[in-house]
Specification:
The protein has about 400 residues and is α/β, with parallel strands linked by helices. The protein has helices spanning about 15-25, 35-45, 55-65, 90-100, 120-125, 145-155, 205-215, 235-240, 255-285, 320-325, 360-365, 380-385; strands at about 50-55, 80-85, 105, 130-135, 155-160, 170, 175, 180-185, 200, 225, 230, 290-295, 305-310, 350-355, 365-370.
Length: about 400
C-alpha cells in the first residue's frame, strides 16, 4: 500500500546535503567543532546554560539519570529511590531508571492532555518520592504550575523527557528547560532530525560536566582545565588522554550530526509554526466528530502528531477504524507505547502501579495517532476526514 498520508517526512534539503559534504571532505567525522557549535546554539535557543549532544534521545535519558548518581548536590539519587513516571511513554523513558536500580511508581494520565493526571499525581507523591519525571507527550507540555507546586512542597526533583516536544512552551518557557534537566530527540520522525541524535539541557555547571564525562567513557579529556569533578587538569595532554573518573559510556554523536543539527535548528521556528497551523485545522475538523477524544493543548504544543481516542460511546472498534485508515493509505501507530505496564519487560523492574491506571488502559485499548508535518497538510486532513 502506497502511503497517501505518511507518518513522518524528511525536513532536509540542499543545506543539509552541503553540510554533510563539507564534513566528509574535511575528514573530521567524529565529534568536533560542529557538535560544539550545535550545543551552544541549542542551549541559547532554549534559554539554558548548557546543552550536551548525544547519539539518541534514549542516550539522553540514560545520561540524565546516570548523572544524578554522581552529583554532590542534595538531589543525588541512590539505588532504591522512588521516581514517579507516567503510565504512558516510550520504553527508554523507563529503562534508565531500571538500569540504575530505581523504583518506578506508575501514575495515570489525563485522557485529554495525555500527560499526568494531576490529581492522581498529587495522591501518588509520598515521603519516599525522590523525583518526578514529566513526559511531554506528542508535543504537549505538562501543567508545570501544578507539578512544580507538588515538587517544591516536598523538595522533589523535577526532570523532563521532552523527546517528542521540541519547541513546545509553557507560559513562555520552553519545555525541556523547566526541570533541572530535560532531554530531546533528533530522530528522523521528530521536529528536527540529525539522523539519530539527542540532547540534554541543564543550567547546572556540575551536571553539565558530569554529562560530558559520562558521554565519552567517563574520562577527563573533554572537561575544562578547571572543573568541578577533578579540580585542575594536568596541562600535559598525554597524561589526561586516558584518565577515567566515572563509569561512563560512548554515546557521542557524529560530527555529521552536529553539522546537520546547525541547519535544522535554523528551521525549527518555521517547522513548529507549520505544525501548529496544521493542528488548528485538525482540531477544527475533529470538533464535529463526537465519537473521538483528541488531545487538549496545554501551553503551546509543538504538535508532534495527532492523537485520536475512541470514546466509550463509540459504536465501532479501534480495529475497524484502523483497517479503514490503512486501506486508504493513512499511516497510523499506537499512542507512543500505550499503557507501558502491560509489557512483559516490567517483570524486571522494581515498580508499583499507583491506582487503577484506568485512563492509560483506555488509551491503550482505543487510541492511535496519525502524523503531523512541517508543511501544509490540507489534503491529508481531507482524506482523514473522509475516513473518520
Amino acid at each position: 500500500m502506497i502511503s497517501k498520508y505518511p507518518l513522518a517526512t524528511s525536513t532536509w534539503d540542499a543545506l543539509e546535503t552541503e553540510a554533510m559534504r563539507e564534513i566528509i571532505d574535511s575528514g573530521q567525522l567524529t565529534m568536533g567543532s560542529k557538535v560544539k557549535a550545535f550545543e551552544e546554539n541549542f542551549a541559547k535557543k532554549f534559554g539554558a546554560k548548557y546543552a550536551v549532544m548525544v547519539n539518541s534521545g534514549s542516550s539522553a535519558n540514560l545520561l540524565m539519570i546516570a548523572s544524578l548518581f554522581y552529583t554532590n548536590e542534595n538531589y543525588k539519587l541512590k539505588r532504591g529511590d522512588e521516581v514517579i513516571v507516567p503510565a504512558v511513554s516510550w520504553s527508554t523513558t523507563y529503562y534508565p531508571l531500571y538500569q540504575y536500580g530505581l523504583r518506578l511508581k506508575f501514575v495515570d494520565i489525563n485522557l485529554e492532555t495525555l500527560n499526568y493526571d494531576i490529581e492522581e499525581l498529587k495522591k501518588a507523591v509520598d515521603s519516599k518520592t525522590k523525583a518526578i519525571l514529566a513526559v511531554n507527550l506528542l508535543g504537549n507540555p505538562n501543567d508545570y504550575d501544578e507539578i512544580r507546586k507538588i515538587a517544591d512542597e516536598r523538595n522533589i526533583l523535577l526532570l523532563e523527557d521532552n523527546c517528542e516536544s521540541m519547541g513546545a512552551k509553557y507560559k513562555g518557557t520552553y519545555a525541556g528547560n523547566i526541570g533541572i534537566m530535560g532531554t530531546f530527540s533528533t530522530f528522523f520522525s521528530h521536529h528536527i532530525s540529525t539522523m539519530e541524535g539527542g540532547v540534554i539541557l541543564t543550567n547546572s555547571e556540575e551536571l553539565y560536566q558530569i554529562l560530558i564525562s559520562l558521554r565519552a567513557h567517563g574520562w577527563t579529556r573533554n572537561l575544562p582545565e578547571k572543573n568541578l569533578l577533578t579540580g585542575l587538569k594536568s596541562s600535559d595532554q598525554f597524561e589526561e588522554s586516558f584518565k577515567f573518573i566515572l563509569p561512563g559510556y560512548n554515546v557521542r554523536p557524529l560530527e555529521l550530526s552536529g553539522a546537520i543539527g546547525l541547519c535544522q535548528l535554523e528551521k525549527l521556528d518555521s517547522i513548529v509554526a507549520a505544525r501548529r497551523e496544521n493542528a488548528r485545522k485538525f482540531q477544527s475538523m475533529m470538533s464535529t466528530k463526537a465519537q473521538y477524544h483528541t488531545q487538549l493543548e496545554i501551553g503551546e504544543s509543538s504538535w508532534f502528531g495527532f492523537s485520536i481516542i475512541l470514546k466509550d460511546t463509540c459504536t465501532f472498534s479501534r480495529a475497524e477504524i484502523i483497517n479503514k485508515l490503512v486501506a486508504n493509505g493513512i499511516e497510523v501507530r499506537p499512542i507512543v507505547a500505550g499503557d507501558f505496564t502491560k509489557n512483559k519487560v516490567i517483570d524486571f523492574f522494581d515498580y508499583e502501579k499507583f491506582g487503577e491506571l484506568k485512563n492509560a488502559a483506555k488509551l491503550d485499548k482505543n487510541g492511535f495517532f496519525v502524523g503531523n508535518h512541517h508543511y501544509p497538510i490540507d489534503n491529508y486532513l481531507t482524506l482523514l476526514d473522509s475516513v473518520l
